[in-house]
UniProtKB/TrEMBL annotation, chain A:
Transmembrane segments: 12-31, 40-58, 78-96
Keywords assigned by UniProt, alphabetized: Membrane, Transmembrane, Transmembrane helix
NCBIfam families in UniProt: TIGR03943 family putative permease subunit
Keyword Transmembrane: yes
UniProt name for this protein: Unannotated protein
Taxonomic source organism: freshwater metagenome
TrEMBL record, chain B:
Membrane-traversing stretches: 21-41, 53-79, 127-151, 157-177, 210-227, 239-259, 266-289, 309-328
Signal sequence residues: none
Top-level taxonomy: unclassified sequences, metagenomes, ecological metagenomes
Family: Belongs to the UPF0718 family.
Membrane topology, record value: Multi-pass membrane protein
Cellular location(s): Cell membrane
Record's keyword terms, sorted: Cell membrane, Membrane, Transmembrane, Transmembrane helix
Matching PANTHER family: UPF0718 PROTEIN YCGR
Keyword set includes Transcription regulation: no
InterPro entries named among the record's database cross-references: DUF318 (IPR005524), UPF0718 (IPR052923)
Name this polypeptide is given: Unannotated protein
Amino acid sequence: MVVAVRLPTQGLLLMFLGAVLLRIAGTDAYLRYVVEWMRWPLLVSGALLLLLALGPLLREDTDEEHGHDHGEDGHGHGVPRVTWLLVLPGIIAFVVSPPELGSYLAERRADDLVAVSAPTEATSLGGDGPVDLPVEEFMWLAQVADPELEEQQVTLTGFVSYGGGEDGGWYVTRMQIGCCAADAMAYRVKVDGAERPERDEWVAVTGTHVTGTGVEPPFEVVLAAESVEIVDEPLQTYE
Amino acid sequence: MDETLTEQPRRARRRAVGQMELVALGLLVVVFGGQFVAPYLDGPQFGTWSTIFLAIVIQSTPFLVLGVMLSAIISIVLSERVLQRVVPRNDVLAVPVAGVAGVGLPGCECAAVPIAGSLIRRGIAPAVALTFLLAAPAVNPAVIVSTAVAFPGEWDIVAARFIASLMTAVLVGWWCLSRGSRLPLRRLEQVIDESSSTRERFVATVRHDFVHASGFLVLGAALAAAVNSFVPRAIIDTVAGQAVLGVLTMALFAFVVALCSESDAFVAASFTAFSDTAKLVFMVVGPAMDVKLASMEAGTFGGAFARQFVPLVIGTAVACASLVGWWLL
């Protein structure tokens, strides 16, 4: 049987959770889990949890001075034992420091049909050199068979995920999150004509769209690669 | 088990000091020793689970903090007179009013649980508070906007979601009303007696509500993250063609993945193989009930209540969404 959580320990658990929020939001690590505007709510609620923890922790001190003559310490009504689970986020954050979502989830979600929506601001195509395009926008242009995409050199940046089977090809991949990492969707474009790099390696692939791919379900868009460059992982890995 | 009654309190007290010190020591070990264990835990499955788990916890915690602050304001600061003026005296009428009032809380479902608890504590009929709990995460402006963005140009889906969610909340509210005192609700009392200062009572209520809900939130997040990272969606797609099975699968899926109501529309939109009605069911069930909410509600209102409330809400949500879907979509 699990021991009940006593009041000073409650304070400690709250403090730990608050510290986790502050630590995650204090660095860029929070971008792996939630969207950008969550930073301030995380900092504020982390600080509030620390304040909240002070009460029970200080009360413990006074009890020490008074030689434990307060008896049951004011927590007559039981706190649910599940409260112990509050240590779990902290343990995970400090021990595992979970990475951003990568090829494992993207490959498991490979058969999902992702909803590609029109970009809010379209990148202007045309010109001689390759144009940097978000993976989702490239998939959108392919799906609506935009005539401007033909012969247009583009550069897609993302991490590497593999197709099924022994050599199912490889994909340049970006994850997208709406609220937090739980609702992540994988956008991927198959790369043709280039040796496949290691899983989760970040690459910038330059090439042209293979006309006609990605128009019909399951919307697999193919990029005929001319060059594949290994690049540094960006700060914001989600698109 | 063989200790005498007189010995027990002394032993318990000795453990009280020991517990806090033990936990503090454990946390220090985790904080400073964690980096040495990390290399052994880098499997991609575990990594993905922990990312999603931590994401759900840290996404929900600010909303839960907001919820317990609002709930403490309702419990402590709001005067009896204000409360009575806001809530109609007639409970049958107050239920739909509470449903529409949900429009005013643009937050996630985690914020609504402590608020409903504090409304009950203040003597509002449980049926009214529970209607608010069900409606708020589903009908607020943030959710309506995100649904409209996820389904561009498909206003009928946005309208259907609003109507079906409100209908679910009000119907469940009226059911609770009809059960009256037979509802197996845990008695919720003011956390601290009237003698202490307002500030003390405020802080104690915030802490009490947070501690009572957050453990269950973590439990729900752990389960939802497991489903999210280990159950392939392809399994779900196999039933997409079947009308009834499709609807039931989407309802079950909404319950187990426990998405935030502000982003579930995007996930629903990605189930392109399913009928619009099935997608609607996903978006109506999710905000009203999921594994994280069920866990928190069991903690706040008691297990006996949750065992009746959870299946009832899911059933009503599926029925309302199917009906509205058949009518509008």
